[in-house]
Design a protein that fits this description.
The chain is an all-alpha fold and 54 residues long. The chain has one domain (2-49). It is built from 2 helices and no strands. The longest helix is centred in the middle third of the chain and has 31 residues, at 19-49.
Length: 54
């Protein structure tokens, strides 16, 4: 994921992506990262709290 963010920054710095395009793609990648980490965080919370949820 960090490689993708670095690549996006390089494309923006080279003028290939506009600031707006960079911001949109950056937000998309960060949203995917957040979504991917959410289940693991929920499992950790459940195990710490002793909650048995589906």
């Amino acid at each position: 994921m960090t490689e993708q963010l670095t690549k996006l920054a390089s494309l923006r710095d080279e003028g290939i992506l506009s600031d707006e395009e960079f911001a949109a793609k950056n937000a998309e990648l960060l949203a995917r990262l957040k979504a991917a980490s959410r289940p693991a965080a929920l499992d950790l919370h459940r195990s710490v709290k002793g909650v048995d949820l589906p």
